[in-house]
Each structure stands twice: as structure tokens, then as C-alpha cells.
Write a structure and sequence with these properties.
The strands form three sheets. Strands 3, 5, 6, 7, 8, 15 and 16 form a seven-stranded mixed sheet that branches. Strands 11-10-9-12-13-14 form a six-stranded parallel sheet, sandwiched between helices. The chain is built from eleven helices and 16 strands. By secondary structure, the chain is α/β, with parallel strands linked by helices.
């Protein structure tokens, strides 16, 4: 089968950083789906894993944790899907990624693809939708019936997770959404997704919140640079409020800043359930199906901004470079494999 991967961890401008491969087609395990991949998208986790380091892989490593495709075959214990089902999912960081013609994934972290979307539009959603959903509803504990009208500050609103988090916070939870963005294009993107207010994350956020009459927020969802925004988050969160971040810190932060307000903090990593095979692992199947329903009803929209064709090493290097440039909005997707007669089985 065709795939794109690496054996050395190199800067993205090196043509060997991601290369075209021919690999053996895998066989599904007990609860695995074998998926014929039609589209993939690129996330910051891809660039972090590929980050230059001395390590050399004895076997090619395949990245990519956003997939849309069709089930080709199923393992003996599969109950949720059958061959021919169109699916979308993010997969597990502990297994090979989806930048391959065929891919194995545990059925419990897979959703039925939204019927109203093509494969490219669907591939933009899984990792960011899971992250946004878990961050808002599991980690921050937002309950729509109870919290409607409360405020959430989303730091990094124009990125992949921010783009779906704005929609979930506004359309599903009924929160007042304050997003951050630093350019007019990214600010306009946030507003188009439903943000009530947009402030500049390179400016004085507390002063900007004060200026729009929103000096405190009940929830803060940090999607970039936890170190940089820690003191700001502690300052603007309301008493008994909640903070969540998806970005690891590079140094210890002062949790004592939250003590006087009895504020709480949680991390969100959407791979946790798959890494630890948690008892509630199937929750990701359920939430992806819920997202698909919201998409098909028109309550949410895909966050794809750019589609590159076909899926190959050159286009993946381009996508990684764009993401590393830090000026993208929404998601970058790659769709369709080259139709060459010599492709592997």
C-alpha cells in the first residue's frame, strides 16, 4: 500500500523529512477496523512528533491523526461497524498514523462520517472536534442547561481546535464566546464561526476584556502557549471558575494564583482514552456520532480551509510547513491518492 512517513526527524524543508513509501497492508485485530483512507488532515501533533531530533527509525514511521475513509474489513470482535461504512476518526498516538492507503483503528474511537460532508471536509474534524468537546464538556464541565449565557474565553480561536470550540460553545452550550486572534483575517474567521467578541492575544487581554465590559469569565480554554497566558488566565477567570489547556508547559507554573478564587485547572489530551484503554473509551465513538449529527443538521460546519491533492510526501511537507508558519486558520486537508498503476496492494 502507499504511505507517507519518515525514518529520520528532519526540518520540513529537507525533502527527506517526509517521503513516499510502499508498505505492507495491515490486518485488523479483534476490535480493529481496516479503513481505506480517502482524506487526512494535519495537526500540530504531526509537526511536534516530526520535530528534528537525532533518533533514527529502523522501520518507517507513519504520522497523521485525522482520517476519513471507508471500512474495508473488520476484526472478529467488531460490533459498531461493517465493511462499506463511511467513517471519520483521529486514531491513537500509540499506533501508526493515517497517512497511508489503509489504516487500522479501534472501533471505539471511530464515528460514522457526517452524511452531508465529503471525505475532505470530514477529515478536518475528528481530532479537533474530540479535543474541543472533551475540553468544554468533560474538563471544563460545561452543562448547556445550567451554564447558558456564561462566558468562555478561547485563547487561539482561529486554529483547528478553536474553530470547532467556538461553534460548540456557542451553538451547543449557549455560552457567550470571547475568542482571541491577532490578525484581521483570523478575527473575521472567529466571528464567522459565532464568536461574540474577538480580542488580540498579543495585546493586554485583561484590559481588552475590561473595555468590552467582560472583565471576568467563568471558563477559559487555552489552545496555545500555556506558559505565556497562565497569569492572564488566573487573573481573568471568575471566582470558582475553571481553566483548561491543551498545551503542555515548558516550566512549572504558579498554581497558587488560582487558590484565592477556588478556581480549578485541567489538561485535555484527546489521546488519553486510547493510550490508557480507559473504561469509557467508547465515549469518543459516541461524541463523533453526535458531532456528525450536528453537522448534518446544520448546527455546526466543517473547519477545513485548504485542501491539497493528492496525498503524497510533497503535499504533506507543504502542509507541515504551512502549519509551522503559525498563520493558518482552520484546517489543512489532503485528499485522494495518486491514481498510478504501480501502486502497491
Amino acid at each position: 500500500m502507499r504511505a507517507v512517513g519518515l525514518t529520520r526527524y528532519l526540518p520540513i524543508d529537507d525533502p527527506e523529512s517526509l517521503v513516499d513509501l510502499t508498505l505492507e497492508r495491515p490486518e485488523p485485530g479483534e476490535r480493529d477496523l481496516l479503513v481505506r483512507v480517502h482524506a487526512v488532515s494535519v495537526n500540530p501533533v504531526d509537526t511536534k512528533v516530526r520535530r528534528p531530533k537525532p533518533q533514527v527509525e529502523a522501520r518507517p514511521r507513519v504520522l497523521g491523526w485525522d482520517v476519513a475513509g471507508v471500512v474495508e474489513a473488520v476484526g472478529a470482535g467488531v460490533t459498531l461497524f461493517q465493511a462499506g461504512d463511511a467513517v471519520y476518526y483521529a486514531g491513537s498516538i500509540t499506533r501508526p498514523g493515517g497517512d497511508s492507503e489503509y489504516h487500522l483503528v479501534d472501533e471505539r474511537i471511530v464515528g460514522h462520517k457526517p452524511r452531508s460532508l465529503d471525505f475532505a471536509a470530514a477529515a478536518a474534524l475528528p481530532l479537533t472536534a474530540i479535543t474541543a468537546w472533551e475540553g468544554l464538556f468533560d474538563r471544563l464541565g460545561v452543562v448547556a442547561e445550567r451554564d447558558r449565557g456564561k462566558r468562555v474565553l478561547i485563547i487561539g480561536g482561529a486554529g483547528g481546535v478553536g474553530s470547532i470550540a467556538i461553534q460548540l460553545a456557542k451553538q451547543v452550550a449557549g455560552l457567550e464566546v470571547i475568542a482571541t486572534a491577532s490578525r484581521e483575517a483570523s478575527a473575521a474567521w472567529c466571528r464567522s464561526l459565532g464568536a461574540d467578541h474577538v480580542v488580540d492575544h498579543f495585546g493586554d487581554i485583561p484590559a481588552q476584556l475590561q473595555a468590552i465590559g467582560r472583565p471576568e469569565v467563568e471558563f477559559v480554554f487555552c489552545l496555545q502557549d500555556t506558559d505565556r497566558y497562565w497569569a492572564t488566565m488566573a487573573r481573568v477567570v471568575a471566582p470558582q471558575g475553571k481553566l483548561c489547556s491543551i498545551v503542555e508547559t515548558s516550566a512549572p507554573v504558579d498554581v497558587g494564583l488560582l487558590q484565592r478564587k477556588s478556581a480549578s485547572f485541567a489538561y485535555e489530551l484527546m489521546f488519553t482514552r486510547a493510550i490508557f484503554q480507559t473504561a469509557d473509551m467508547i465515549a469518543q465513538h459516541e461524541l463523533l456520532d453526535a458531532i456528525a449529527g450536528l453537522i448534518d443538521r446544520g448546527a455546526l460546519r466543517t473547519t477545513v480551509d485548504t485542501v491539497l491533492r493528492p496525498i503524497n510526501a510533497a503535499n504533506l511537507r507543504d502542509a507541515h510547513a504551512r502549519l509551522e508558519g503559525g498563520r493558518t486558520v482552520g484546517k489543512i486537508v489532503l485528499a485522494d491518492w495518486p491514481e498510478d498503476a504501480g501502486a502497491g496492494a
